Amino acid sequence: MPCAPLQLENETMKMRGKAVSGKTIFLLCLASFLAGSLFTSRTWTSYSSTSHNKNNPTDPVIPKHASKKLGEVARDFDHKRKLGEGKAEDIMGEVSKTHKAIQSLDKTISNLKIELAVARMSHTAVGVHSLEKASNLTLQKAFVVIGINTAFSSRKRRDSVRETWMPTGEKLKKLEKEKGIVIRFVIGRSATAGGVLDKALDKEEAEHKDFLRLKHVEGYHKLSTKTRLYFSTAVSIWDAEFYVKVDDDVHLNLGSLASTLAQHRYKPRIYIGCMKSGPVLSQKGVKYHEPEYWKFGEAGNKYFRHATGQIYGISKDLASYISINSPILHRYANEDVSLGSWFIGLEVELVDDRSMCCGTPPDCEWKTQAGNICVASFDWSCSGVCNSVERMKYVHYSCGEGDGAIWKADI
User: Fold this and answer.
1) How far apart are CA 376 and CA 62, in angstroms?
2) Positive or negative CA dihedral for 351, 356, 359, 363?
3) Is 31 helix (H, G, I), strand (E, B) or coil?
């Protein structure tokens, strides 16, 4: 037995040593080709018969996903061919419709976002002790909230306003109830809380009930902060269509203001006033000095376009924007510049209405006689009515629209 493997190995070595003839190689190759052809033919026929109609067994096989893709390409090609064969007007019409639909959708989404933000903010007490008392109540509906910017030293100015264009007592309540026009003097507190100034204002408020008190320390160089707080506070108390700020030395015709705002009530993001672009004052010590002048480019440059600070108005969505983003809104030295800067980069419509910056008589008087009643009148040289305590009655007599105009205003 041990010799068997050795014998088999010797036989193998002998076979390896023999040469294979060419005829044998040819016969082996021919047999392999015939066997391969027979196998391939049967496999193709079997696959084809399960994938296609039996009457067409020789059709090529196309996978289902490839067939679906080819169908989509064919349909897309046919659609483009038909579109190309159509009239140019039809094509442009379709493009225009699509563009309008996209714009409408964008506006709807924007409005929904704003409404959601306002709904959230309505449950947050901001800036006013009267709001703390009414935090659980529904927001009061209004057409416009008019905030009259005032100071502790301006008691006589406030009285001159009450004696002319601003209703008082029951008439003020009636104006809110029947016309949706809310008017309040806007003021913060003194540097010494509970001091003489605050107590005097408490007494005046108890008498007239026409103040909006902010949690804000009064000061001329803090007007930007006060403006921001005013809009944030007002929008959290009143659900109004517009919010207006006016100085206490400006004459106002309420009926004309209401009619002017009503023209824009169905437009989003309205910023209305007398638009200007004054110089950036870099010199220290001058009025309206801008400490951050370097942000506006080279010396001698002007500010971006914004409404002059004597009077301006914004729509509800912009007031809500200020309220929501209040902590991160930058404040420049001048409050009108600050307000304008908050809207840069937003889709805001700037309405330049020159009836909101008429001069005092004879300017506003001539316009009134011509039937072009001014919304607001003041002297540019004084940034308000010069000597307003003494002259407000004269301006009202010369340029006023009449006490009944506000009740006839179509709003």
Assistant:
1) 80
2) positive
3) helix
